[in-house]
Design goal:
single chain, alpha+beta, four-stranded antiparallel sheet, 62 strands, globular, disordered C terminus
Length: 902
Amino acid sequence: MKFAFKFANVLGAIYRKGDILFTPDGNSVISPVGNRICIYNLKNHTSTALPIESRFNYECLALSPSGNLLIAVNEEGEAHFITLLTRRKLFSYRFNETVRRIIFSPNGKHFAVCKINKVFVFHTPEYDGTDRIIGQITLEKVFADFYDDTTSIDWTDDSCVLAMSSKDGLTKLISMHDRSRFHKYTLSGHTDPIVAVFFESSSLNLVTVGRNGQLTLWDCNTDLKELHKLDKQLTTKMKEIVLNDDEDDIQVTLDDNEKSLALETKSEPLDDSSFKISYHRLSKHYLNDYHKFEKRVNLTACVYHKSSRILVTGFSNGSIFIHELPEVTLIDSLSISDNGIASVAVNNIGDWIAIGCENQGQLMVWEWQSQTYVLKQQAHASGISCLTYSNDGSFIATGGVDAKIKVWNVESGFCFVTFSDHSSGISDLKFSNNRKFVVSASVDGTVRTFDMHRYRNFRIFTTPRPVQFSCLAIDATDEFVAAGAQDVFDIYLWSMKLGQLIECLTGHESPVSGLAFSPVVTSSVFVSVSWDKTLRMWNTIEGEKTYDTIELGAEALCVAYKPDGKEVAVSTLNGLISIFDTSSGYQLRSIEGRNDLGSGRSLTDQITAKKNLDAKAFTSIAYSADGNCIIAGGQSKNICIYHVAQGILLKKFEVTQNRSLDAVDDIINRRKMTEFGNLDLIEKREDSNVKIRLPGVLQGDMAARSFKPEVRVFDVAFSPTGLAWSAATTEGVLIYSLDSSLIFDPFDLQVDITVDSIEQTMKSNKLKALVMSLKLGEIDVIRHVLENIPSTSIELIVRSIPTAYLERLIKFLSSSIESTRHIELYLLWIENLINDGRFVKGSQKTILLGLYRNLTKKHQDIMKICDFNKYTMKMILKRKVKSKNEDPDESSVSDVGMSLGI
């Protein structure tokens, strides 16, 4: 098995906090997800996570006007410059303070940063569009005239004038160039901190919005186009150039702005009057008047679309208002949730509004003109507790502490159904082997089954007395469902068809921590582990007696069956993973994994990292699809993959580097240890000091206190196809996929097998060339050989090809069927390979599952295209029927136009 796994995507975490942006084309939304950045494509309905990870959560984002350069700033003031062309980080820059706002100038040459009570203007570094920087970031201007922290900035359309606002309610306007006409202007009148300030399109008029909902419109007595003409006191150098008729001198000595200024001044006489630019308040409005029956409602987010003059405001009670300026006419309003709106954004056209809610992890794109959702996604409110794969690896179901079950599409990364029937947290869930339903167990005392076709709860399994379920298992035939309790120490067995309780199995003396049915279809055995240090084997047919009992060295935490049903693995509290033979009950081997977990000392721990390691153990284990490896995760940021036969560590993955979470570092910063205690125990909130979290609480106490959740791995699972694995962590569901591009995997390679020799062999012997390409293992070479074989020769070549190369050939077909244009040719190869019989007899289950998954996805894509074409043809035919009585020339023209429009 190969371990070239790389991070692929993150599910279950849609939005945390920070700015959300639209790309310049308006088809994608960029959202910060903790210390990662996700891009949601609204046109193709897919989501991807950038392969970039910060040491702290991202808060501020800025995208260049070209859409190629992204600046992401985390909560510690470290900025990452990312190119979206290759999706790589170019370089980092430290601002050393918390950045509240960052924005590019419209021409893309500068970007301004709000930091403490200053505004810094930097020159944007140039790059060649790949990964190389031409030049460097340079600081050009610093504006430090504020008494309080700056909150918002905006540029005029010509990138010459900058408007800045602060918490003291003042707005200042400063020109980037030295102009005698434009001095520093200060606008006042707000009684609360200003949330946002905006320039009107191609104008110096301003719009300022305060936290208390106060909206103020400012009118300037000068247009932006006249600003250059009114500046009569030109420099001596410019006066000389204006009087000179040679325009070549202008190009040599001046930049573009000065050149246009000189030419305009040259064509028109200068105004010698003492006219000064001034502002006056046009109108003042209070948006909080819409919340007459609610108190303490603050405006938290605001965005202004300049071309359509649409103002979108979000409030702390979850309300969204859309106004049209300058009349401030209310166009639309909606309520998202009971929590505050953290960020809003508008696309380039102005018809889509992206809304982000921090507490609920919601991200929505609302089309306000048609009153519909373009995108509506929400994460688990209180973290993910468990996950499971469907049998073909296409879907992932997650259960959360918020009592919800969400089913995610692995390819698109979106949740397409949410079940909210449980009343308490989900402890475990499983997909049925036929992928028709999902079974879940909860601490509310019920086991529920959800139909994946009708999306409803059709079975509810209960017990004679209330219990709290901790684990769940379903057999290979989908006939029996077993669940273990953590308060009465019993195991309950139900029949899926009858929907009734069959047996209540007793014998454990402590809470049941894990259940697993044998994956063999003909077997009715399942195993259970408990805190009473025993592993018990049960038979569902003879359920009144224990099949076998195995004593363990410590309390058991979880159990997993090998895919062939011959072995079972148990993780115990002492950090061991023990492997047992299911037929004899003997222990085959054990894996020591405690030292691989890592210490991960919390900020408030009073013990050393070495002592803290004694309490660490794996809380979730799973076998790989071929049964050769075990993946394990637990109370740590590390996930380990072990080789079962040799008992050695093959690969260790660090799921996060996010220092915004607790227990990531192994060493505590001693500078925070004072004579009065640990500074991390105190939260500075205005004039009061409040404890961060209650003792013994790992995920936060849900009160008004702030907290840093502790990094943990709650559940791990291998994909049935063997090409990926997932982990439910504090950061969400992290998916790691096999990167085949990094693997050179030859098979029985010889010295004389090269690309040139394969090309020469194709002219005389197609079969030999195909075998040579399979030996070389290069995907492009195999594709070239395969597609140049005539379809009439496929059956003969499949019968003649050696058996050793059938598996490699079907793997290539399985991975290429999804992206190829030669669908019929590839289907002929697959049909002949399956009909041959040799591959089916000696194949692995993972290869067939991968082939089934890719064929199903291709079938669904083709069905969508066919449906679209079917209705399009109906529309064209209907149009032709209507145009029969028209002039032939006119009808033909209309049909052609209709076709071209489609």
